[in-house]
Structure formats: C-alpha cells, structure tokens
Amino acid sequence: VLGLLLPKYLETVIYGALLQASASELGARMTAMGSATDNAQELISKLVLNYNKVRQATITREISEIVGGAEALK
C-alpha cells in the first residue's frame, strides 16, 4: 500500500508546488502591469496638462497679435 501511495503523494506535492509557482508568477505580472498602468496614466495626465498650457499660450499670443494689429490700424 505504501508503495502505491508514496509516489502519488510525491506527485501531488510536486504538482502543488508547480501550481504555487505559476500563481506567484501571475500575481507578480499583475502587480507589474498595474504599476505600469498607473505610471502611464500619470504620464498622460502630465502631457495633457502641458499640451493645454501650450495651446492656451498660443491662443493668448494670437489674440494679442490681433488686438495689436487692430490698434495699429486706428
């Protein structure tokens, strides 16, 4: 009986260890991808803010040029 149970027990223990290793790897991947997603969202927010500042500065400059030109024509 022991000769039949011992190999099955060892097989089960090894299989369990492989499952644990696989689950651990997947957990680490999920954590890394979560961090990458957070970093990407932060970068996107910074870039959008910078874009809007540049766009607003361009609009302000163009309005100033138009007003200056209109004043010069008077």
Automatic annotation (TrEMBL):
Q: Name one Pfam family in it.
A: ATP-synt
Name a single GO cellular component: proton-transporting ATP synthase complex
Q: Where in the cell is it found?
A: Membrane
MF annotations from Gene Ontology: proton-transporting ATP synthase activity, rotational mechanism
Keyword terms of this UniProt record: ATP synthesis, CF(1), Hydrogen ion transport, Ion transport, Membrane, Transport
Iron as a keyword?
Answer: no
- PANTHER family according to UniProt: ATP SYNTHASE GAMMA CHAIN (PTHR11693), ATP SYNTHASE SUBUNIT GAMMA, MITOCHONDRIAL (PTHR11693:SF22)
This protein is called Atp synthase gamma subunit signature
- Species for this entry: Lucifera butyrica
